[in-house]
Design a protein that fits this description.
Helix content: under 10%
Order of helices and strands: HEEEEEEEEEEEEEEEEEE
Radius of gyration: 23 Å
Oligomer: single chain
Number of helices: 1
Distance between the termini: 23 Å
Mean pLDDT: 84
Strand order of the largest sheet: 2-11-8-4-5
Structural class: mainly beta
Shape: globular
Largest sheet: 5 strands, mixed
Length: 278
């Protein structure tokens, strides 16, 4: 209890301190566009743009590594990078090359590459000029700090007939207490597995509906399923009256951040679950 109370009191000052330290760095970070690059086998190349948002020159490195979004035991999502993927992994990282200035990515896949979609993460590392820093208590000693930022975006290489689909493995909803924020939350777990030979790119729509079928709250989250994921979604519903509700789930290929022409079609999935808010 003492630790939880201390965390609750310190959370805001810590966040403010971290934001104060990081915000100037993020403001000058290298902007990478697009955040998802698609290359067709017939084309063999794709383009991306690096924009220096700061006033200082930046040294930029571009690397490729096999990786994909994955969930942990708590339902959190993150990028899993695999430097040495197994031989049967659909990795494109080994046969991608990046060229300077306007960054052109050229793919030179094996001649016997089977039809399908192959993945890589594009890792853009930028290093600014060394920033001087005085050492406390000594006016004659100076140190320098070089900040290094990494931006990781996705790349999909498609050859021949590619298709995707997704199956729902698990869907459950319950009211739970967020121990850190001391707030009642709506907790929803969604388990998805990808079918086909390409990643599923889409979104998860969750609606909280009352007994009359009216939508009380709704949330949309973009998702990418490369293998299997078990994702936890948590929402603050303290201002929602107590009672019986239904949670409607819709998994679809709607993505507002990616050109619809690049999204592979898949059948939508719709489910409902009952939940009691107390």
């Amino acid at each position: 209890m003492l630790l939880r109370s201390l965390l609750r009191r310190l959370r805001v000052p810590i966040l403010v301190l971290l934001f104060t330290m990081v915000a100037p760095v993020l403001a000058d970070a290298i902007l990478v566009s697009p955040h998802a690059l698609f290359i067709r086998h017939e084309q063999g190349t794709g383009e991306m743009y690096l924009i220096n948002q700061g006033d200082e020159a930046e040294e930029v490195d571009i690397a490729f590594q096999f990786g994909y979004p994955a969930t942990d035991s708590l339902g959190g999502i993150g990028i899993r990078l695999i430097p040495d993927p197994p031989a049967d992994a659909p990795s494109a990282a080994d046969w991608l090359r990046a060229f300077p200035r306007r960054v052109r990515v050229r793919a030179t896949p094996p001649a016997d590459l089977p039809d399908g979609e192959y993945w890589s993460r594009i890792i853009v590392t930028s290093r600014g000029a060394q920033q001087p820093m005085a050492v406390a208590g000594d006016t004659t000693v100076r140190a320098g700090v070089t900040l290094e930022l990494r931006t990781i975006t996705s790349l999909a290489y498609r050859k021949g007939a590619v298709r995707t689909d997704v199956t729902l493995d698990e869907f459950r909803a319950a009211a739970s207490a967020d121990s850190l924020a001391d707030a009642d939350s709506l907790e929803v777990w969604v388990g998805l597995t990808r079918d086909g030979n390409a990643a599923f790119l889409g979104s998860v729509l969750l609606e909280l509906r009352d007994d009359g079928g009216e939508v009380v709250r709704s949330w949309v989250t973009p998702v990418a399923v490369y293998y299997s994921t078990l994702r936890r979604f948590a929402y603050d519903v303290r201002d929602v009256p107590e009672g019986s509700y239904r949670v409607r789930l819709l998994v679809s290929t709607d993505r507002g951040d990616i050109d619809p022409r690049l999204i592979l079609p898949a059948d939508p999935i719709e489910r409902v679950a009952d939940v009691e808010l107390r």
